[in-house]
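> Could you send the N-acetylmuramoyl-L-alanine amidase domain-containing protein prediction when you get a chance?

Sure thing. Input:
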Amino acid sequence: MNAPAYTELDRMGNSRSERWGARVTNFLIHTQEGNGTAESLAAYLNNPANGVSYHYTLRGGVVCDVVDTDYASWSVLDANSHTINLCFAGSRASWSRNQWLAIEADLRIAAWLAVQDARKYGFASDVIAPPYSRRDGISDHRYVTECLGIGTHTDVGWNFPWAVFESHVREFAGGAPVAGEIDIKAASSPWLGKRLGSGEEMRTADGVGRFVQFEHGYIYWHPSTGAHPIPASLFEKYAETGWEAGPLGYPITDHTVLRDPANLEWGEVQGFQNGALYRRTGKPAYRVHGEIRERWNRTGFENGALGWPISDEIAYDTASYQEFDNGRIYWTPKPTLALRTTSGRDEPLRDSA
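Output:
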């Protein structure tokens, strides 16, 4: 596995202590709570009078080596002797998830450094994300506070994208769990047929997920959703919406074959992060989502008064609506309205909510 591209600068100083024979057990990440660069933060840490240091500072693809990892940095009080510490310069624990994802390249570099140090010192490269458990691995300052009972810091904060960070750690640690989940799902889904092309996992556009193409569909995997196959009968619509980068996101369930009141195969459905795809046998697939989906669900889904969707959501003015076999559902900023069409007339349906 190739290392991510970054610039490494030697900024070693004397803000350090002996480890006194302690075994290194954890790699911890931190926020600066300021707006420094990797170099300016390193310069501050190199003044022993400031009483703080980290082994690494990182920002914008620049890594500064501040403390030799054979020594303890001054980062986590009584946990210094058995930890390696990296600080994201210019970061804050109050950051939103989107702010963290904006520096995903740095998250990937941090994951690389963590895995290399785990191998060097012989501790696990498992990511210990909230809710924490006390063990060897890769975590953050909040782990020290909540799990080890040392100090009061809560960085890197509640919005840190742990699943994204863990996917990079897995990649550099060997990637076996990713391949394993796809392989396990493929083995339990023989209807997919044989793998096409090279048969290897392909990286999705976000750089986090993976997918594999088969004769009769695809398997998509993401660390927060797991691996789920998408049959070819639904995949055309999924592709039309922009795959995982579109409004549906990643699949969160396998597809389900639906049956009519006589128990005959009627169609299929699959759930995604932001909606579902429904397809009646012999008809196109349609996306159902949001409050219109919730209202339709309350009518009884495809077995209810409205029947199957026969269109995607259609925008008009500042609102939208969706057509069904026997009527439509309107969405406005105010509550939804469901209308059943009978004998050419629209009949409002009473909402059970």
